[in-house]
Write a structure and sequence with these properties.
The protein is α/β, with parallel strands linked by helices. It is built from 19 helices and ten strands. It has an eight-stranded mixed beta sheet. A two-stranded antiparallel sheet has the order 3-4. Helix 14 (302-311) links the parallel strand 9 and strand 10 (315-320). Helix 9 (172-181) runs parallel beside helix 10 (200-211) and helix 17 (384-400) packs across helix 19 (409-418). The radius of gyration is 22 Å and the shape is globular. The structure holds iron/sulfur cluster. Iron/sulfur cluster is lined by residues 5, 7-8, 22-23, 25-26, 69, 71-72, 83-84. Iron/sulfur cluster (SF4) is lined by residues 5, 7-8, 22-23, 25-26, 69, 71-72, 83-84.
């Protein structure tokens, strides 16, 4: 098999339980209900050259199976690309990277430098409760699910709203210090969450990088919901070598409000206008990626959102939801699939025409990603997901005073007619 992955030679991050790992998709081992691993109060080095990671590097070079990487293997098996294959493309001609791999091969997987890319995940502190997210992503979801499950008696319904047993308690101050200690080697710093922009250590690290002069050598990557973005921050970001703002936006207008509850579209639209005009009016190195998690709720509105992003020169990045299964687009009712696919094809044709004369829109690349989405829709579905979808949607709609039937009667009615509830 091919299991070679650049992340193992470049990157570290913390997961939402405060344990180091190689990437956001890597699934840690769980023993006695607890995530195992090296906690971020230990120095970066203790994970970076740990026995486990060194062994995974050797396996990766030999093309052997690596525990925890199944998300990528599954995506590749389903006929699509994976984060692993995307990264292999990015690094295949990078001379420094090739040297790193060579050195790891000669030293039983041990590397003689710190990670060049670090992700600082601020835990699950968040100001939104997006439909596809879990309590690990947002403390507000955890609280809401606790309220919901306290009113339920049926276990199959309670299982749709899993809550965290223990509060997420990470020693972020120590992790912050380890990053500062290794700043000389770091080339890329990514912030993710929860929501980084409501976390004080995010501001502490940004100021540290600027005041120590390292920002000019660092590529800054931020996953944010944009709700707290302001001009002062954008000015600070401009002091970094290169900046990607990966903003999460899973729809526009009513779809946005439905999925990214309880944020209002008019608020976020103003932030988008501010970001767009900052980029236009300043000579800036900021690139904007519009991250769209493709799920049952926003599937039919996806092309309108992509059009909105392309008009603003934002790069659309499509992330199909793999979990929970009832939001996975491969699990929409079979009777719906052909119809949905033909609706998507029609809109693809419209986009191709609209952006044909605008090569900077990368329309061909966008279309290739949409083609992968269509392949996913066509995969075999899991029947149980139809009932789960209806139950989860109805309970959460009631709690939030929302109505998916109003947002998308076509999809909702198809699910309802196929469910056995
Ligand atoms: S193979 Fe996938 S899951 Fe494993 S480290 Fe690479 S990107 Fe992460």
């Amino acid at each position: 098999m091919n299991s070679f992955c650049p992340n193992l030679f470049n990157h570290v991050m913390n997961d939402s339980y405060g344990v180091y790992k190689a990437c956001c998709l890597h699934v840690p081992e769980i023993k006695d209900g607890k995530v195992t691993g090296i906690t971020v109060d230990q120095p970066l080095e203790s994970f970076w050259n740990s026995k486990e990671l060194a062994e995974d590097r050797v396996k990766s070079i030999k093309g052997e199976y690596i525990k925890g990487c199944d998300v990528c293997y599954r995506a590749e098996k389903d006929g699509g690309a994976s984060q692993r294959t995307d990264l292999v493309e990015v690094y295949k001609e990078d001379k420094d990277f090739i040297e790193r791999v060579k050195s790891a091969r000669e030293n039983k997987g041990i590397l003689n430098h710190s990670p060049i890319s670090v992700e600082y995940r601020v835990g699950n502190l968040c100001n939104l409760k997006c439909r596809m997210c879990s309590p690990q992503d947002s403390d507000l979801i955890n609280n809401e699910y606790k309220e919901i499950t306290s009113t339920l008696t049926d276990n199959s319904l309670i299982n749709l709203f899993p809550t965290l047993k223990d509060p997420v308690n990470i020693d972020m101050d120590q992790y912050c210090n380890h990053i500062k200690d290794n700043v000389e080697d770091i080339e890329v710093i990514r912030f993710s969450g929860g929501e980084p922009l409501i976390n004080k250590s995010f501001y502490e690290l940004i100021d540290f990088f600027i005041e120590s002069g390292h920002s000019f050598n660092l590529d800054l990557r931020i996953n944010t919901n944009l709700t707290k973005l302001n001009l002062d921050l954008l000015t600070k970001f401009s002091k970094f070598k290169d900046v990607n703002i990966d903003f999460s936006i899973d729809g526009i207008e009513e779809t946005y409000e439905y999925v990214r509850y309880p944020m209002r579209w008019k608020v976020i639209n103003k932030k988008i206008d501010m970001l767009e005009s900052f980029i236009k009016n300043n000579k800036t190195n900021i690139k904007v990626y519009a991250n769209y998690t493709v799920q049952t709720y926003n599937l039919l509105h996806m092309l309108d959102a992509i059009d909105f992003f392309l008009e603003r020169n934002f790069i659309p990045v499509l992330h199909p939801v793999t979990h929970p299964q009832y939001l996975n687009i491969k699990n929409i009712p079979d009777a719906l699939k052909e119809n949905v696919v033909s609706k998507i094809y029609k809109k693809i044709d419209f986009l191709k025409l609209k952006y044909a004369d605008k090569p900077s829109s990368n329309i061909n690349w966008v279309v290739s990603k949409l083609t992968s989405i269509i392949s996913l829709i066509k995969l075999d579905s899991e029947k149980r997901s139809i009932n789960d979808f209806i139950q989860f949607t109805d309970i959460l709609d009631k709690k939030r005073n929302q109505d998916f039937l109003k947002l998308d009667p076509f999809i909702y009615n198809h699910f309802k007619s196929q469910s056995i509830l």
